[in-house]
Design a protein that fits this description.
heterodimer, A: mainly alpha, ABC transporter involved in vitamin B12 uptake, BtuC, 11 helices, globular, B: alpha/beta, Rossmann fold, six-stranded mixed beta sheet, 9 helices
Chain lengths: ~270, ~250
Amino acid sequence: MFDDFFIRALVAGIGVAFITGPLGCFVVWRRLSYFGDTLAHSALLGVTIALSLEFNIALSVFITASVIALFLIQLQKKTNLPGDALLGLLAHSSLGIGLVAIGFLSFIRFDVMGLLFGDILAVTTNDLLVIWIGGILILLTLRFIWKPLFASTVNYELAEAEGLNPDIAKAIFTLLMAAVIALSIKMIGLLLITGMLIIPAAFARNLSDTPKKMVLFSIIGGLLSVFLGLFSSLKLNTPSGPSIITAALILFVISLFKIKQTIKLKN
Amino acid sequence: MSLDKNTLVRLKDAGIKQEEKWLVKGVSLEVNRGKIITLIGPNGSGKSTTAKIALGIYKNYEGSVEKFTNKIGYVPQKISIDWTLPLRVTDFMVLTENLSADEIEEALSLTGVNHLVNKNLGNLSGGEFQRVLLARAISKKPDLLVLDEPVQGVDFTGEIALYELIKKISEKLNCGILLISHDLHMVMSATDHVVCLNGHVCCSGSPIDVAKDKEYKALFGDQASQTLSIYEHKHDHEHTDDGKIRQKN
């Protein structure tokens, strides 16, 4: 069954949608979209380290992204620069270092485009195992820290005062973000992965009035984007990663009509 | 555990410094089971700061803070909730504790807002939101309640009803309450112990003692010390939330 590249791509995409759906909601709620972008940019550095040391790519990306996240927290404590400036600094410098490092690796055949925009049609059965097992672990962990993470997203002081340890939940969530990027970089690409986190969640926000519903719709939005994107990329011969993101955008635009209706009803 | 099992939180000479300036200094107090202790003082006197030290929100404090319970309900003075979150009242109620639908209903009824259970939190008025905050804090049946101006923005009749509720809760749950209030009438009539703050503890003791204290008079004026005499009478009836006299069962 997994012999067909298209089936493999679908199964990989479904896995990615299940992970990015819930995490994407937290990215929107906690205003972390630029943070996700920064981690994704650092992935290029992770990949070059993996290639030069002949190390597992996903693991290397995960470690690099986690280190960048730690570095960011330290910088926030030590400087007076605003958060977005620090994020930009880390995002582009890690991207720059990554590209410079690739220059030194000219002896390795290397598909930079695939890394930037993803190549979901090239996933192997092995990749599928990594995505699904990793994905299940990520979702179980998220389930485990849901209460403190969500409570501190609503209000940090309430969560802290009532003994939920929001700082630990936040640290674990940061690692989960790094893990998601490590798992999906090959499918979606480092320039588009934040889109996969944010757009289905934004679509879901337009349709939901409760947090759980938003998570559910975010997963559904991601799944629909994967189906629509992959089938249209097959039919129209367009690149697969960008097609998935375009499909997600179309869903988001459609969801805007639903808001218009509710606003009308209110008036 | 503390030797005295009734103590829920104990501050000894606690204070907090920010950029070489003391926000509040040398506060010693104890919240005990079944008692209401009130912090009063002018704006900026460190009431909320003291509460946050006791709650463990501020960690870089000086002095010692001992907490003997983890079942805490907190109503903060200011709460900024991001309205991009899709959040109904019922979702907010289970924020830190899992509650059944009945428990949610019961707590919201106590503060008179059970009709709002499925409303979006962002669409509530200030007073309604305050009632929801109080309901959330008591719904988990905490050992320790920290209420930072819990009735701000609530209408006049509601204010009295909520203060009576707070008093009733402390008896029913046998919990300790650390209350911050500007309403001296309430403080003097319903509190067991008063701590008067102005960057440090000016005076503390039973309401009667504090009202007689010179420092208290200096802070709040002579009029304030007379509130005691006005409020030393018993209520012979209760009001429902719409102001009607509640029928006794």
